[in-house]
Amino acid sequence: MTRQPVLSLRGVNTHYGAAHILRDVDIEIYAGEMVCLLGGNASGKTTTLKTMLGYVKPSSGTVLFDGENVNEWSTAKRVGHGLTMVPENRRLFKRMTVRENLEIGAYLRQGESLDGDLDRVFEMFPRVKERLTQKAGTLSGGEQQMVAMGRALMARPKVLLMDEPSMGLAPVLVAQNFEIIERINQAGTTVFVVEQNASMALSIADRGYVLQTGRIVLNDTSQGLLANPQMRAAYLGDV
Predict the structure, then answer these.
(1) What gap in Å lies between CA 61 and CA 81, rounded to an integer?
(2) Looking at residue 134, what DSSP letter applies?
(3) Do 154 and 105 meet the contact criterion of CB atoms below 8 Å apart?
(4) Beta bridge partners of 20
(5) What's the sign of the alpha-carbon dihedral 164, 165, 169, 175?
(6) Cross-strand partners of 191
(7) What are the angstrom distances between the C-alpha of 238 and each of 147, 174, 178, 230?
(8) Given pLDDT bands bounded at 50, 70 and 90, which one contains residue 167?
């Protein structure tokens, strides 16, 4: 029996007006994997995530989730079926409390008990439990990232999309952040990480894709990409 990706892009092209952003992009993510998407600024990484989540509709090609064409699905419907994103720069509701931000992650399950979901978040992020009544905007950058990841986990994702999780964090917090992402994956959640910090992303991912001006130019295991001369020269600082 052929193994089926849980999330894939097949021949996807996207445009913003006349601007052709993604060009014939093929990506496959299998259940339980951690896959990273690497590339420089303006390479199309964030557009890839927006296309997966339904913020952007492909001009052509197909987004498949659990084997089903979801091109016409709303973002809310995709989230309800288990596709969730931790956005770039956290994007918390800063005037709301930590608890309120977490509860928003489960807004599609109104009326259900959230105790089990909150316990899962607190086990992963003990500091978040200590800050429940605090306004999210008063937290440190590292704490805000924990709340953003916790909010996404409240949606019970099958696939967790992460947009530049290292952005704006001190190096020691970047390392801690990626350790947490690895733990989330090891606990059973499929993870797709978009990241500029190639060496850090490849240190925990199973596989990776490299996007350049809207095209996938490399696709390999993490070890294969780390050993690739083109990859090393362009993204890992080797000469």
Answers:
(1) 21
(2) S
(3) yes
(4) 15
(5) negative
(6) 34, 160
(7) 35, 21, 23, 9
(8) confident
Half-sphere exposure of 211 (CA within 13 A, CB side): 27
Per the structure, the complete domain to which residue 141 belongs is given by 88-156
Model confidence pLDDT, tens digit, residues 135-164: 988 988 888 888 898 999 999 999 999 998
Beta-bridge mates of residue 36: 193, 208
Asked if 119 and 143 sit in the same domain, the reply is yes
Residue 58: CB atoms within 10 A of its CB come to 18
What are 75's two structure tokens? 């973002």
Count of CB atoms situated within 10 Å of the CB of 24: 14
Domain C-terminal end among 121, 156, 191 = 156
Rounded to whole angstroms, the Cα distance separating 150 from 61 reads 32
> Which residues sit opposite 161 in a β-bridge?
85, 192
Average pLDDT, the chain: 90
Do residues 166 and 232 both lie within one domain?
yes
One domain, residues 115 and 220: no
Q: Are residues 117 and 139 in the same domain?
A: yes
| CA proximity to 160, closest of 137, 142, 187, 138 | 187
Residue 21 has what DSSP assignment?
E
Whether 150 and 161 share a structural domain: no
* The length of the chain, given as a count of residues: 239
Last residue of some domain: 156, 178, 211? 156
Residue 132: closest CA among 90, 109, 102, 87: 102
pLDDT at residue 239 in the model: 33
> Cα separation of 162 and 237, whole Å?
23
**What is the model's pLDDT at position 23?**
97
For 37, the enclosing helix (H) or strand (E) is strand 34-38
